[in-house]
């Protein structure tokens, strides 16, 4: 996908007095969620003959992001590539600041001119990216190296993966880099009463140990404060269910973990109940792969995210919006659920237009379920030789629509989930 951008120029002047010598002065600026690159250039204006040294660094809303001292007069920070000494990754929305280190300041003071260039993506065309948001490596209890995992992901043509080793972050500091694969740093907080993933930050928490609700909440809040996204993992898995309270500050819920099985079914039922009660919860999936296995494999299930920005920031923004569906593999069914210019995850207010279901890569005998807050409204069986499905749904008093595809898998002699999407919500205003 070709990235097209526009830029915003910000110029700020800062006068540093001799009394501020050996202090750190912040020059704040605001970032919106669609910024993909930051370029900082500064110049020190010294009118006297005395030595003047002002160092340079930058912080994001959560931490110091880099420091070059007096070695550089300009730096860049991007989601993938940054100037040495500065961290690439999520360019979080919020207040950032250029840090000026007042090392040596003349008696008469000095003036520093700071020029900030913010590049914004102007890609309006969204595309579906596919990936796996849950896996383990040799850095915890998995058998795959990071290089082996990346090679498998590239072979399966995944666009992104998240490395979520148990209670450790060492994998995040040795990430391999690939042009065609976004590798999201992560960690699975693994407690004796449930697991949750922290996404997007190399080192989201300093200590994983949580043995009571207060400590669990503290860990989640620490991760959120660092800029991480939080998902509750396999909450109804019989081996490691979520036994904590649900009033934690999470972003998403992993409804589909590994092969489709009863624990996933229970989470699906729980999620449906939450949706009926008016709770808008975005669900994701992850393979939870640890080692070679005939059924537990990378990209099974696959999480598909619609975004115009092929980056970690774009993926997170797409998931936050609920522009997500899941399929049993990268080759599984694909889904679109729209109403006018709205799509899955959005809220429809113009109920005069129909909801349109578009499914592809189907096979004979696949079972399609159209589901709302009323339950299963309609079912369709894919006839012979049909690989696509299109249907218009009339809105009456539904709170949402969502779609599931079920498939018979000969390998296990069972009909299991093949694909599912997040809901298209419907507003009751004007009804």
Task: Write a brief caption for the model.
The protein has 431 residues and is mainly beta. It folds into two domains: 5-121, Sandwich (Jelly Rolls), CATH 2.60.120.380; 127-426, TIM Barrel, CATH 3.20.20.140.
Would you mind describing this structure in some detail?
This protein is mainly beta and 431 residues long. It has a 15-stranded mixed sheet that branches. The protein has a four-stranded antiparallel sheet with strand order 1-8-3-6, with no helix packed on it. The chain has a four-stranded antiparallel sheet with strand order 2-7-4-5, with no helix packed on it. It has two domains: 5-121, Jelly Rolls, CATH 2.60.120; 127-426, Metal-dependent hydrolases (TIM Barrel, Alpha-Beta Barrel), CATH 3.20.20.140. The longest helix is centred in the middle third of the chain and has 15 residues, at 262-276. It has helices spanning 146-155, 213-226, 262-276, 312-320, and strands spanning 5-16, 24-31, 35-45, 53-59, 64-69, 74-78, 94-104, 110-121, 127-132, 160-163, 182-191, 194-199, 229-232, 252-257, 282-286, 302-307, 324-327, 334-339, 342-343, 347-348, 355-360, 367-372, 375-381, 389-393, 400-409, 414-421, 424-426.
Structural descriptors:
27 strands; 2 domains; TIM Barrel; Jelly Rolls; PHP_dom; mainly beta; 4 helices; PHP_domain; 4-stranded antiparallel beta sheet; Pol/histidinol_Pase-like; 431 residues
């Amino acid at each position: 996908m070709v990235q097209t951008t526009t830029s915003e120029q910000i110029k700020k002047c800062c006068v540093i007095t001799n009394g501020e010598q050996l202090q750190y002065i912040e020059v704040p600026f605001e970032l919106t969620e669609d910024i993909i690159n930051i370029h900082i250039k500064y110049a020190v204006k010294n009118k006297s003959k005395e030595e003047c040294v002002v160092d340079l660094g930058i912080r994001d809303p959560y931490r110091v992001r880099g420091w070059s001292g007096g070695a550089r007069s300009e730096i860049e920070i991007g989601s993938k590539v940054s100037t040495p000494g500065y961290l690439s990754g999520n360019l979080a929305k919020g207040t950032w600041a250029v840090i000026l280190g007042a090392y040596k300041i003349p008696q008469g003071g000095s003036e520093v001119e700071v020029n900030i260039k913010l590049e914004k993506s102007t890609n309006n065309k969204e595309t579906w990216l596919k990936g796996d948001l849950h896996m383990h490596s040799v850095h915890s209890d998995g058998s795959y190296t990071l290089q082996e995992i990346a090679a498998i992901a590239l072979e399966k043509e995944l666009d992104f993966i998240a490395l979520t080793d148990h209670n450790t972050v060492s994998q995040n500091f040795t990430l391999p880099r690939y042009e065609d694969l976004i590798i999201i740093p992560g960690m699975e907080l693994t407690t004796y009463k449930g697991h949750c993933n922290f996404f997007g930050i190399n080192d989201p928490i300093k200590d994983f140990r949580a043995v009571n609700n207060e400590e669990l909440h503290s860990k989640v809040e620490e991760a959120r404060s660092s800029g991480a996204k939080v998902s509750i993992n396999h909450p109804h898995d019989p081996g490691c269910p979520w036994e904590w309270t649900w009033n934690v500050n999470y972003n998403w819920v992993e409804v589909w973990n590994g092969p489709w099985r009863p624990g996933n079914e229970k989470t699906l039922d729980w999620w449906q109940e939450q949706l009926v009660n008016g709770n808008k919860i975005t669900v994701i999936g992850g393979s939870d792969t640890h080692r070679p296995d005939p059924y537990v494999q990378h990209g099974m299930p696959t999480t598909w995210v619609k975004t115009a920005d092929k980056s970690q920031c774009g993926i997170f923004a797409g998931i936050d919006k609920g522009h997500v569906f899941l399929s049993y593999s990268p080759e599984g069914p694909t889904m679109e659920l729209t109403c006018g210019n709205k799509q899955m995850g959005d809220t429809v207010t113009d109920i005069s237009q129909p909801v349109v279901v578009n499914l592809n890569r189907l096979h004979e005998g696949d079972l399609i379920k159209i589901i709302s807050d009323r339950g299963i409204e309609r079912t369709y069986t894919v006839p012979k030789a049909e690989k696509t499905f299109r249907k218009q749904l009339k809105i009456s008093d539904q709170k949402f629509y969502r779609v599931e595809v079920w498939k018979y898998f000969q390998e296990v002699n069972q009909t299991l989930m093949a694909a599912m999407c997040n809901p298209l919500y419907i507003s009751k205003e004007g009804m």
